[in-house]
Structure formats: C-alpha cells, structure tokens
Specification:
Number of domains: 1
Shape: globular
Radius of gyration: 17 Å
Helix content: 40-55%
CATH superfamily: NAD(P)-binding Rossmann-like Domain
Strand order of the largest sheet: 3-2-1-4-5-6-7
Largest sheet: 7 strands, parallel
Bound molecules: NADP nicotinamide-adenine-dinucleotide phosphate
Number of strands: 7
CATH topology: Rossmann fold
Length: 256
C-alpha cells in the first residue's frame, strides 16, 4: 500500500455533519482530496453548495443534503438518500456541534442545555443509529465522533458543553466495543481550542484569549486543517487497528 497509499480513501463514501463551516468544512475537504466521495450535511444550503463547488474545483467529489442533525425526520431523509444513491457508507463523521455560551454554570439558560443535548448528543445518536445498516453494508467502515478536550477534562464556563462531550467520549468507547464484530471502527476526536466561528468570541477578546493560551504550551489556537488531518488518519487504513480511541489535538492543553 505504501506510505502515501495508506492515507487514500478512493471509492469510499463519507458523510460529514456540520460540514458547512469550521472543523467540518476542513474535514470534508481533506477527505475529498484523499479520494472519498463526501456527502456534506448541515442546515445552510448556500454554504454547502459553495463547499461542494470548492471541492469539485480541486478535483474531488462532493454532494450535499440540507438537514438538522437534531431532527429525526430530517436525518432519516439524509440516510435514505445515501442508501438510494450509494447503498453503503464507509465513513461517518459526527461533527455538528454547538456551544452557545461561555458563562458560569449558574447562568446557564435552560434552552442552552436543551440545544446542546439535542445537537451534540441526540444528533450523534441519530447519526450512528441511522447509519448502522449502511456502515455494515460497507464491510469495513469507520465512525469519528467529534468530542473535545472538554470530553476528557473539566473546562470552566462550559460545564454543560463538557457534559455532552464527556458523554460522547464514553459513548464512542462503548460503540467501539460493540461494533468491532461488524468491522466498524469507532473513534473520537478531541480538539483543544481551534480557530472557528465557535471560538471567534474568545479569540477576538484579548483578555480571554490570554487566559486560555496560558494553558496551551504551543501558545496558539489550532487550525481546522490540523484537526482534519488527524481525522484523515483515524478513518484511513493507517489506523486499521485503532478503535475506541480519543485522539487529542490540542497544542498540549491536556499534557499538564
Ligand atoms: N472550535 C473548537 O475550538 C472546538 C474544540 C473542540 C471541539 N469542537 C467541536 O468540533 C465540532 C465543530 O465545531 P466548529 O468549531 O467547527 O463549530 P462551528 O464553526 O460553529 O461550526 C459548527 C458546524 O455545525 C453545524 N451545525 C450546528 N448545528 C447544527 C444542526 N442542528 N444540524 C446540522 N448542522 C449543525 C453548522 O452548520 P449550519 O450552521 O450550516 O447548520 C456548522 O457547520 C463541534 O462538535 C464542536 O463541539 C470544536
């Protein structure tokens, strides 16, 4: 297979949720450049159409479906389409996620709790549950759940967000143990602070940014591409014996 070949995904069907922006957008592009046919999923059609165009202009193959990961019927429509179009799914990246505030726990609004539970957890439940027959049909498949360093260590001011990500980390391990017999690997990605819309309120506030970077030995936020290459590794044949793992990409935040 060779050192380069081991990272190729030619002929594989991949689906990425939250593909329109940030980390999901970078993952979609990198998987497409590695040869996968990528189905882009999120709520904003204009952004998905633009990314599809960008991927195609780089010689990749991409399709998009507009859907809300937290809505059952919406996600059923996506997986029905994948089944009709391709008959199987090799790669599922459950990336869509929200973190609507950066506040002390006692100021958490109930609607924020509900939104995070719906998108960050129920959305992943729908993804895994509905994709299962298609992943089995691929005869060798891989799931990546995008968790966070907040799924491994505590982070003040985002307690509810970390509750969803901690649940996702252990959910990933349980599913890995259960699905290995179906030749489906299940891993989690745990990014630290990455420059995206989600963190723009933190990176644009010099005081907050300084407070956060004190925890990062590499003294900077990460870039979406740095997370995307780690995802490529996890779904590629290079990681064929890896399942139930939480891969940390955090500039050293959790190292000390
Ligand atoms: N940025 C970080 O520092 C960081 C660190 C650790 C983990 N993460 C995780 O990485 C993932 C991506 O984060 P990001 O930083 O790239 O966030 P982002 O820039 O805010 O992008 C979020 C993505 O999720 C989609 N999305 C949100 N709600 C959705 C819904 N209900 N249905 C479908 N799609 C939905 C958005 O698309 P539409 O608006 O088009 O629907 C968008 O594509 C999240 O799970 C996040 O928790 C991020």
């Amino acid at each position: 297979m060779g050192v380069e070949g081991v990272f190729r995904l030619d002929g594989q069907i991949a689906l990425v949720t939250g593909a329109s922006r940030g980390i999901g957008k970078a993952i979609s592009m990198i998987l497409a450049l590695a040869g996968a046919k990528v189905v882009l999923v999120s709520r904003k059609e204009a952004l998905l159409a633009r990314l599809q165009k960008d991927i195609r202009s780089e010689g990749g193959e991409a399709y998009y479906r507009v859907a809300n990961v937290a809505e059952e019927e919406s996600m059923e429509g996506v997986f029905r389409w994948v089944e009709e179009e391709f008959g199987c799914l090799h790669i599922l990246v459950n990336n869509a996620g929200v973190s609507p505030h950066y506040l002390p726990f006692h100021e958490t609004a109930k609607k924020d709790w509900e939104k995070m539970m719906a998108v960050n957890l129920k959305g992943v439940f729908f993804g895994c549950y509905m994709a299962f027959p298609l992943l089995r049909a691929a005869d060798g498949a891989s799931v990546v759940n995008v968790s966070s360093i907040g799924g491994l260590v505590g982070l003040p001011r985002v307690a509810v967000y970390t509750a969803t990500k901690g649940a996702l980390t252990i959910f990933t391990k349980s599913l890995a143990a259960e699905w290995a017999r179906y030749r489906i690997r299940v891993n989690a990605l745990c990014p630290g602070f990455i420059e995206t819309d989600m963190t723009s309120g933190l990176s644009s506030n010099e005081k907050l940014k300084r407070e956060l970077l004190v925890r990062v030995p590499m003294e900077r936020f990460g870039k979406p591409e740095e997370v995307a290459y780690a995802t490529l590794f996890m779904v590629s044949p290079a990681a064929s014996y890896m399942t139930g793992h939480c891969l940390v990409v955090d500039g050293g935040w959790t190292a000390w």
